[in-house]
Amino acid sequence: MTSALRDVPDLTSHDDGVRTVAEKLAAGERLDLDDAVALFESRDLIGVGALADAQNRAKNGQRVFFSSNQHINPTNVCVLRNTCVFCSFARMPKEEGAYTRTLEEVLAEASRAKSSPTREFHIVGGLHPKLRLSYYTDMIRALRAAYPGVHVKALTAVEIAHLARIERCSFREVLAQLKEAGLTSLPGGGAEVFGRAVRMTIADRKLAGDDWLEVHRQAHALGIPTNCTMLYGHVETMRDRAEHLLILRGLQDETGGFLTYIPLAYHPDHNALGEEMGWQGRPTTGIDDLLNIAVGRLVLDNVPHIKTHWPMVSPFVSQVALHFGCDDVEGTVVYERVYHEAGALTPMEMAYDDLVRLIRDAGKVPVERDSLYHAVRTFD
Ligand code: SF4
Q1: 203 C-alpha vs ligand 1 centroid, how far in Å?
Q2: Phi, psi at residue 3, to the nearest 5°?
Q3: What number does CATH give the domain 62-378?
Q4: What's the mean pLDDT in 136-151?
Q5: Stretch 338-366: mean pLDDT
Q6: Residue-level pLDDT at 215
Q7: How high is the pLDDT of residue 342?
Q8: Which run of H or E residues covers position 59?
């Protein structure tokens, strides 16, 4: 049963914090920092999930979006290889396994999706010390020419800032040139957790939180929509998580440019942080994965979509997440590398029909979308 006015379930939670949040939502009040901390600390997952599910259904009904996409990682060479201690993907230029694709190799890789026509290339990689902006603008132009109509979502804020440094220009100039080459949107990676103490511990030389926000602010000003993320499940506190979400919500109030929020689960294998802490083989739990989806939906009341990243949390948890406030599932992917380097045991791609089934079997209506959340195909 739900309250007619605000579509908030009448629930009797054993958790005072969850009851307070339910009352605030029913009264149309915005959640604050203490509410967000209380939700992250709650042991009433079902209560938090029911609230988030109601908020999601009020925004998106029974629709769940997915995309027919391809991940391309042009290089794993990264100047921060030894300082982002949570990363398993990066390599030094001469380290075993280091690679940098030529334009021809990227185009060859782009043709490998077989189960469905690709509608989006998702392109992220390391901070290569020598690759110039033209490497990326040439790549985007070539992909747009070879695959007309396919969207290109490329380069995290960290990569944009790195290119600005290399080219000795502003974030805005880099973004403008990428847009001119055919960039559709930016992915949300590199945000990690904005809190200074956390950043100093896991990524002390990475782009500062304020600069990550500035890149996204500039992108939004240029009409480039972006995604936002949080990497959870390492050294952060519940307050760090809550503050991170409120900072994202603040930028969204200002610009309205975020399309979706994606909580990213930390994987502890093959990286210095996991080894130092003895966390290998102990990724985040299903409860925490679902809680991060639900709290994201409740706190980020101004972000249209919440996405579950099945390569990180498993297709099973992603399916359950569709009842915890989530309306968007990571796509066909073909092939995911970044989290598999960190020990993810999930598949490296998912067939189109399997994605449709995953959503349908959750009792939802699958909607294939493009990068900008326009419906391409609806499976009523
Ligand atoms: S997280 Fe990104 S910036 Fe940091 S080492 Fe890995 S690839 Fe480089």
Answers
A1: 9
A2: -70, 130
A3: 3.20.20.70
A4: 95
A5: 84
A6: 98
A7: 62
A8: helix 45-60
Q: Is 363 exposed, middle or buried (0-12, 13-18, 19+ CB in 10 A)?
A: exposed
Residue 141, token pair as written in the block: 């132009």
Q: What's the CA-to-centroid distance between 91 and ligand 1, angstroms?
A: 9
The residue whose CA is least distant from atom 2 of ligand 1 is 126
Confidence of residue 113 (pLDDT cuts 50, 70, 90): low
Strand 375-378 and strand 365-369: the pairing is antiparallel
Joined tokens for residue 23: 């009352």
What residue has token string 């209380």? 38
Give the predicted TM-score (pTM) of the model. Answer: 0.94
CA distances from 307 to 73, 90, 370 (A): 21, 25, 14
Alpha carbon 261 to chain centroid distance?
6
In short, whether 191's Cβ falls inside 6 Å of ligand 1 is no
Ligand 1 atom index nearest CA of 159: 3
Does the beta carbon of 259 lie inside 6 Å of ligand 1?
Answer: no
In this structure, the residue with its CA closest to atom 1 of ligand 1 is 87
Q: Read off the pLDDT of each residue in 69-97 and give the average, rounded to a whole number.
A: 94
User: Which atom of ligand 1 lies nearest, measured to the CA of 79?
Assistant: 8
143 neighbors 107 (Cβ within 8 angstroms): yes
The β-bridge partners of 63 are 365
User: Which H/E stretch holds residue 364?
Assistant: none
List the Cα angle 130/134/69 in 5-degree steps: 100
Name the E strands within the chain: 63-66, 69-72, 120-123, 151-154, 226-232, 258-265, 305-308, 328-329, 365-369, 375-378
Strands 226-232 and 151-154: unpaired
CB–CB of 287/256 below 8 Å?
Answer: no
- CA–CA separation, 309 vs 231, rounded Å? 12
Residue 189 CB contacts under 8 Å (≥ 6 apart), including other chains: 124, 156, 157, 158, 229, 264
Rounded distance, CA 141 to CA 30, Å?
43
pLDDT tens for residues 89-106? Answer: 999 999 999 999 999 999
Q: Where along the chain do its domains lie? A: 16-58, 62-378
What does the pLDDT read at residue 234?
Answer: 96
- Which of 89, 123, 131, 201 is the pocket-test mutation for ligand 1 (most atoms within 8 Å of CB)? 89
Task: Identify residue 177 by its one-letter amino acid code.
Answer: Q
Q: Cβ distance 239 to 120 under 8 Å?
A: no
